[in-house]
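Give me structure tokens for this 246-residue protein.
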Amino acid sequence: MLDYDKEAEAYDALRGGEPRAAAAADAVLGLVPPGARTLLDAACGTGIVTRRLAAGRDGLRVAGADLAPEMVRRAAPRLPGAVVRADSRRLPFRDGVFDAVSTVWLLHLLGGAEELAAVAAECARVLRPGGVWVTTVDKGAAHNVGSDIDAVLAARPPSPVVDASGEVASHARAHGLRPAGTARFTGHGQGRSPRSTVADLRRGWFVTLPPGDPGADGFAERLAALPDQDRPRPDPVYTLRAFAKA
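Here you go.
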């Protein structure tokens, strides 16, 4: 698991910056009903997407929450007075106070089914009847674009998949949320090059190959032998699913 306090400083630059944020915010807003007036962006990170959610629709009041102090510190100026430090498994808000909740690039970081159930329960709890939860699913699969890098990485130990679409839908249903739409958006600027993938490997991006793992060196060598070391392969395409509260 990456240390997101350490990641905060370079987070935006390493993950597509404003183009990716714009694509994510547009896709989220496309699944939020026109009449929504309040939205919580849980696990908001640096607020780069959160700010665009607030700017993207007139009359929509947006709040952000994140557990990592350094992420909160960077998000706060982007959404003055509306960002709190909070765990998405235990949100510090009353029942039924939001018309929408978004969790973008959160679920894949959770520790297992119990944590997924907790996040789904909290998102459902803070939604009013008719509100929607919009979340990314299947994030790991989005990064497999069929490239030569993916061919090398295919042999690595498999990572646990917490955010599988079917599992997310099952937990949503258990908390009174029904499917309400799907969208996709491009992770602009996130196409991997062999050299950048080696750097990600060295800093712990791949949870089953942590820094210092003996197997990591072998993967690094195979990646370093690929052609076009600095040429990005295709960008990932992420999937969003929306679930509405009865």
